């Protein structure tokens, strides 16, 4: 089982400018497993709407790829800025960007070009970081961007946002010049005092929603915020399927008993094994949810007990079709996903005993063998949601 002591909880939240169907801000992130680090980019395209989204998407994509390849930042910034299409109205090519390069050993580098200053929150205080000025040439004009190098510490949060946050509410009687970074800081401190361990997603969402309130629920600009939270990892173990050899049932029980985190049992036979080993009763729910999946069951000491292959298949389907860590609805599959999103390191123990019922050729094609369903889920969690995954067959 995984013993990593550091984890980077990273997420973001966005709202489009009022009446716009796409956001002119873009946030991208990438985990480089071989180097043990995460790279994230927040870009704000010129103006709003589709043109801004194109500029921001190109900028964020190039910044992410160049940084992943360890290209010099000055060279990266100049290529990005000189590659963007020229705005026909303003005759400029423009998109702001903030690049965050952070590894699990705490080394952190941030590059900021024309976005509001990033915030580093440590022990309920904002810590100033010395900046290094870098001169770049953009379309024949000299511009400046700033780099920051520091070591992040356990429980630190890095908060970045576009000016849709800091300038929200501009023109209102109570904030003629907008919300402002100082007031954003006060708002964040109040939140952290109330919710000490608030997730990156929830913190980003609360900041964006407050900016939206400042604009009287009609955003004057695209509003985006991203948060990186460096902390102890939260772990979830999902056990599904009986062991290939009945003699390994005790091994499964030992893994669950020693696990330092939450545990989900997905599978009727698997839950019966665990119930027998721990002498714990299974209390099965009586109602089906709208998806038609078998109901959730309860067992003392286990976070969640569900049916196996059908439920995991539904988990895979939902994950495939969403791009946010917010999931609505109810039922076994949704509850599994909520637990996944509330944890960082997801570990699967997959029994390899074949259930003959799932080999019936009359059953739907999509009813795959448990192992393949789990592998699909893992691929999505790693690539789309940057979860750290461990897989163990038994």
Provide a compact summary of the structure:
The chain is an alpha+beta fold and 394 residues long. The protein folds into 2 domains: 7-231, Phosphatase 2c, domain 1 (4-Layer Sandwich), CATH 3.60.40; 235-393, no CATH class.
Structural class: alpha+beta
The tally of strands reads: 18
The CATH topology of the largest domain comes to Phosphatase 2c, domain 1
CATH architecture designation of the largest domain:
4-Layer Sandwich
Which whole number gives the mean pLDDT? 89
Provide the gyration radius in Å.
24 Å
Low-confidence stretches: 362-367
Number of domain modules: 2
DSSP helix fraction? 25-40%
Describe the 3D structure.
The protein has 394 residues and is α+β, with helices and mostly antiparallel strands. It folds into 2 domains: 7-231, PPM-type phosphatase domain (Phosphatase 2c, domain 1, 4-Layer Sandwich), CATH 3.60.40.10; 235-393, no CATH class. 31% of the residues lie in helices and 29% in strands. The strands form 3 sheets. The protein has a 7-stranded mixed β-sheet with strand order 14-15-16-13-12-17-18, with helices on both faces. A hairpin with a 4-residue loop joins strand 2 and strand 3. The longest helix is centred in the first third of the chain and has 20 residues, at 49-68. The protein is elongated. 40% of the residues are buried. Mean pLDDT is 89; it is low at 362-367.
């Amino acid at each position: 089982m995984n013993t990593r002591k550091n984890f980077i909880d990273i997420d973001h939240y966005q709202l489009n400018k009022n009446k716009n169907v796409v956001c002119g801000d873009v946030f991208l992130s990438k985990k480089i497993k071989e180097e043990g680090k995460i790279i994230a980019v927040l870009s704000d395209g010129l103006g709003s709407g589709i043109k801004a989204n194109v500029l921001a998407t190109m900028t964020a994509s190039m910044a992410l790829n160049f940084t992943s390849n360890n290209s010099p930042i000055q060279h990266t910034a100049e290529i990005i800025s000189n590659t963007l299409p020229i705005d026909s109205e303003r005759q400029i090519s423009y998109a702001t960007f903030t690049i965050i390069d952070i590894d699990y050993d705490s080394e952190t580098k941030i590059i900021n070009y024309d976005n509001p200053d990033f915030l580093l929150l440590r022990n309920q205080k904002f810590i100033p970081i010395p900046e290094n000025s870098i001169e770049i040439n953009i379309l024949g004009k000299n511009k400046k961007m700033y780099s920051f190098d520091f070591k992040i510490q356990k429980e630190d949060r890095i908060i970045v946002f576009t000016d849709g946050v800091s300038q929200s509410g501009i023109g209102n009687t109570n904030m003629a010049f907008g919300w402002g970074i100082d007031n954003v800081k006060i708002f964040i401190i109040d939140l952290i005092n109330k919710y000490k361990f608030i997730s990156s997603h929830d913190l980003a969402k609360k900041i964006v929603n407050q900016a939206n309130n400042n604009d009287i629920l009609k955003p004057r600009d695209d509003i985006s915020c991203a948060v990186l939270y460096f902390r102890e990892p939260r772990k979830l173990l999902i056990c599904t399927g009986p062991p290939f050899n009945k003699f390994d049932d005790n091994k499964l029980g030992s893994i669950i008993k020693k696990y330092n985190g939450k545990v989900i049992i997905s599978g009727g036979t698997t839950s019966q094994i665990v119930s027998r080993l721990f002498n714990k009763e299974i209390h099965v729910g009586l109602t089906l949810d709208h998806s038609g999946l078998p109901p959730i069951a309860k067992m003392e000491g286990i976070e969640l007990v569900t049916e196996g292959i059908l439920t995991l298949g539904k988990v895979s389907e939902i994950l495939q079709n969403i791009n946010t860590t917010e999931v609505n609805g109810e039922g076994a599959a949704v509850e599994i996903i909520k637990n996944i999103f509330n944890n960082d390191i997801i570990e699967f123990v997959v029994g390899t005993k074949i259930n003959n019922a799932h080999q019936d050729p009359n059953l739907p094609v999509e009813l795959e063998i448990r192992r393949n369903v789990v592998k699909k889920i893992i691929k999505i969690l790693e690539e789309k949601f940057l979860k750290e995954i461990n897989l163990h067959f038994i």
